[in-house]
Amino acid sequence: MDYSNLYIFLSTLLAIFTTTTLAFLFSAYKSKSHEKSINLPPGSFGWPIIGETFAFLYNDHEKFVGDRMKKYSSKIFKTKILGEPTVVLCGTAGHKFVASNEEKLFVVWRPHSMQKLFRSSYQKAASTVIPRQSEMHVVKAPGFLRAEALVGYVAAMDSMVLDHLKTHWDGKQVVEAHRLTQILVLTLSAKFFMGLEDHCRIDKLAELMDTMMLALHTIPVNIPGTAFHQAMKAAPAAREIIQSFVKEKKEVMASTGNKMHDLLSYMISTPDPFTGRFMPENEIADKIMGNVAASFNSPAMTTTFIVKFLGERPDIYDKVRIEQLEILKSKKSGEALNWDDMQKMKYSWNVALEAMRLIPPLQGTFREAATDFTYQGYTIPKGWKVYWTVSTTTMNPEYFPAPEEFDPTRFEKASLPPYTNIPFGSGPRICPGKDYARLQILSFMHHLVIRFKWELVNPNCKITGGMNPFPVDGLKVRLQAQPSQA
User: Fold this and answer.
1) Which of 47, 140, 209, 411 is deepest in the core (most CB within 10 A)?
2) CA 361 to CA 468: how far, in whole Å?
3) C-alpha span between 434 and 203 (Å, rounded)
4) What number of other Cβ atoms are within 10 A of residue 142's Cβ?
5) What is the model's pLDDT at position 30?
6) Average pLDDT over the chain, rounded to whole?
């Protein structure tokens, strides 16, 4: 054996390791020195390495934020979550500051767990910064989610919601509302975004997406038994279903020459306006998977909690049903809902807004500081994560008297100040699918209250804390069929 070569190899390896370690330590020291020289917000980084991650992820979210607002500042505090030094901006001023400085002071940041789940095999590394132009041109350029396009979706959506209820709810005594709303929202998004109508594939995708959603905001430890491990197994399976459909659709479009009107067809047939290239199938699959995920979790959660609140409050259920029966009476037998009908569902939409206020489907969102900036007299260093949270306004009695009460009429009174209730975000990054989600929710409410009355099997059903609340037992409800006319 040539020991001289082995010695050279080991020496080189040691030199590389030593240089890298020293560079890392110097960088960390330099960062710490910089942070000590500036006026950071009050707060605590918690335990070494893990910081306050467990309390943030698994405790009551409103309590986590509220306790620190009382202890440190009602406007801003620092913490360490998901391995990152983070500042939490609170109240309407915090919301406005983030919305007003998108792409100036802030760039989007995804938690490491999300980055890993949505990183496909062709990507060498997950991008922490999301290019705004690349992200939005696909959704906005052809106008798929604009009002003029949505007008044409209403009748088809109405028919699909009705078919879903006939298949999964009619004739049942007890159903698991959360699971069924997941199937419904994925059925709708698969149809309108992809042109996919294969119920076997849709049901499997819903199952895989549900597994992934449980690990969107978690510690990315990929060991058996963890939610993240299960999600990392589900992600490639979901991507494979989508990618195989992309391939099928591409072949059909090439062989028939038919022009199809859905997002997937547009992505297949239209080059990127910024690069001039057509996207390969795996990249299309990634983008579609991201769009499907975005249209899956929040609408399903909102719809589930609407079912919960209407089951708990027969008085509010009755008002929703009266409104929907009035719309039904104005229609011919078998006539589908239309855009004008949706505009008449004012009380029903207030119920949805109140459900999203009390249990937001997403408790907040992250950004990354693109540069050092000052807020409330404190300096936030470049690279720190910035988190804005909805509970600091939606549960504030200054804006919402008796905030613990479920009261849809609060939205009929004086208009709320800006940035107090923003379930779809605000500013340049407001959810592009907010009007689509509204149609989906109202179509479901219309047919559900006309066909059924219900009660919760477990009135004390536990709702998890953390960023993505969901009912632990799936929200089982006991159904009672209703006559179509009151």
Assistant:
1) 209
2) 6
3) 24
4) 17
5) 46
6) 86
pLDDT at 190: 93
What global pTM score does this model have? 0.87
Number of residues assigned to the chain: 486
Instruction: List Cα–Cα distances, 272 to 130, 136, 144, 479, in angstroms.
Output: 16, 11, 16, 49
Q: Give which of 304, 332, 335, 258 is closest to 448, Cα–Cα.
A: 304
d(CA 214, CA 263): 26
| Integer Cα distance of 336 and 317 in angstroms | 22
Q: Calculate helix-pair angle for 434-451, 154-168, nearest 10 degrees.
A: 40
pLDDT band at 136 (very low <50, low <70, confident <90, very high): low
pLDDT digits (tens, 9 = 90+) for 178-200: 999 999 999 999 998 899 999 99
Partnered with residue 379 across adjacent β-strands are 374
| CA–CA gap between residue 118 and residue 115 (Å, rounded) | 5
CA dihedral 244, 247, 248, 252 (to 10 degrees): 170
Closest CA to 425 of 150, 60, 81, 98: 98
pLDDT band at 266 (very low <50, low <70, confident <90, very high): confident
Beta carbons within 10 angstroms of residue 28's beta carbon: 10
Q: How far apart are CA 313 and CA 463, in angstroms?
A: 18
* Mean pLDDT along residues 62-85: 94
Place of tokens 């939606």: 394
Cβ–Cβ under 8 Å, residues 391 and 62? yes
- Do β-strands 385-389 and 84-89 pair in parallel, antiparallel, or remain unpaired? parallel
What pLDDT, on a 0 to 100 scale, did the predictor assign at position 188? 95
Distance CA 207, CA 209 (A): 6
- Distance between CA atoms of residues 119 and 127, nearest Å: 9
List CB contacts of 381: < 8 A, sequence separation 6 or more. Answer: 31, 34, 35, 38, 40, 85, 369, 372
Judged against a pLDDT cut of 90, whether residue 106 lies above it is answered with: yes
Place of tokens 């922490």: 128
CA-atom Rg of the chain in angstroms? 25
CA atoms of 129 and 118, how far apart (whole Å) = 13
